[in-house]
Amino acid sequence: MRVERDEHGDDRADVRGDGVLSYDLTVRPWIPVQCTDGTEGVLSLLDVFVQARKVRRIVGDLPTQEFALLRLLLAVLHDALDGRPDDTDDWAELWESAEPFDAVPAYLEQHRDRFDLLHPVAPFFQVAELRTGKNEVFALDRIVADVPNGDPFFSMRRPGADRLGFAEAARWVVHAHAYDTSGIKTGAVGDPDAKAGKAYPKGPAWAGNLGGIAAEGRSLRETLLLNLIAPGSGLVHAAKDDAPAWRRPPCAPGENRDPGFASRPSGVRDLYTWQSRRIRLHYDADGVHGVLLSYGDGLVQRNRQKYEPMSAWRRSEPQEKKLREVPVYLPREHKPERAAWRGMQSLVAPVGQGEKTGRNEPAGFLRPALADWLGLLVDEGHIEPAARLRLRTYGVVYGTQQSVIDEITADGVDLSVALLGEQDRLMGQTAVDAVGDADAAVRVLADLAGDLAHAAGAETDRAKKTAGDLGYAALDGPYRIWVSGLAPGVDRHEHREIWQESVFSTVWGLGRRLLDEAGEAAFAGRQFKTSKGTVILDSALADLWFRSRLRRALPAAQSSNGSGAFATGEKSTVG
Q1: What are the two backbone dihedrals, phi and then psi, of residue 413, each rounded to the nearest 5 degrees?
Q2: Which residues does the annotated region (Disordered) include (predicted)?
Q3: DSSP 8-state symbol, 133
Q4: Are residues 441 and 330 in the same domain?
Q5: Which domain holds residue 359?
Q6: Are residues 482 and 352 in the same domain?
Q7: Could you say which of 358, 390, 423 is where a domain stops?
Q8: Is 308 among the domain residues?
Q9: How confident is residue 148, by pLDDT bands cut at 50, 70 and 90?
Q10: Could you tell me which residue, 574 or 81, shows the higher pLDDT?
Q11: pLDDT value at 154 more than 50
Q12: Confidence at 510, pLDDT banded by 50, 70, 90
């Protein structure tokens, strides 16, 4: 497989016949990839599609950059295929085709000028004449998200990003349109919303609002096709004028005010390339040395579930009261402290998934349209139910009025694609119930930690949180292994029992450790008021309560998992 490494090769700009600098992203390597043989390299936009079968996955400078680049590739593919696939049968033809991307090379050649990062009139994802009243140029830290704002000493780029090669700069431009922060930005000449040289907060770029989710196959070829949702499925909005940014007129400074803009995005091609910002790179022949970044096209979050397929959605009753509108759905963000498997309910298709909360009440949450799409492919027989894929999650946590990036979340869970289908929702329900088993057992462990802290006269909340984190960390690997084995042909009842036994053994061991480390103060105990009166809560009573609670939380667990103290009444080593 032919790959190139732009960072270690010649990343200088080309010089066109008229003397103008050029950096053609269709042929210059700029997208980092991991190949199926384990090697890594950097490919051009053209080669990513030509060699997609040999590419394992995109590997960006940050996980969120991978998500942004994947959506860019999907927009290219959808448009090169003229909006295909039309329906699931059409998708199946692409899936079985030896060359599903054969339309891409001619398409990229047709739109080659719009993929020139340095084009004098329509540079890729930029505004050619963007400037401030004083013609200022700013540091590249404004688009390089791995340089924490105000904390450059936490970055490998200390003290900041002074220069970038063109390949890396292109990646950060794509990322900025997806994940740029809010806050006060520089006002550009010609932006009617700018005041006194400042552009005031309009919120993060679009993908920054999402709990991003993508399906990953065994190769980039499979990944692109799995995420290629047919407009004819009814799962995503698709107007006839759906088009990516490079097939629209170049943006001007400020928000688009053209007639008809209010009806956009017109489809996923439009949304995946949404111009959330106005950007202009400043460069010389050797690379990029500065940038101007300001606000572009805003996008209201609420009720965009038919437009944005790569996020789950939650119902917001506070917004319903505020807007006097029912229902109101907002993107369901990922929480850094929660592993992807703990949100299994919003990914698979359990019994009653997203069901209505009462008579004539809208569903409390909606899973991603992407998950519905994959389930539809399974149910219609286009993907084998036993096939496996990875659901990857991406998200950003913003801080200080969304003006800085505090954390970036990225995770993934491997599962049988059958869990996403409607034909056997009991299998999806088993995966969800298993998460409930983990939650219940971890609560028991946290209660034990709280009881021991009370017995010792210490703070209970901190002890419970620490124990809860410990419990989930210990169950993380076991759940991922267990759910990967939940597939057609597996006895789900027996599989659930195996899981409860595993949880029991793990949490039992953690409980024993807490008891052994409780100390003399917890052994002596303190008074504690219960519904039946006041007792002396010491480590022995905490142990007794722990045993009883864990038995109730995991009724299917057996006594053969190193938990003989439960079955025999053997005394704890503490108390």
Answers
A1: -140, 130
A2: 246-266
A3: T
A4: no
A5: 313-423
A6: no
A7: 423
A8: no
A9: low
A10: 81
A11: no
A12: very high
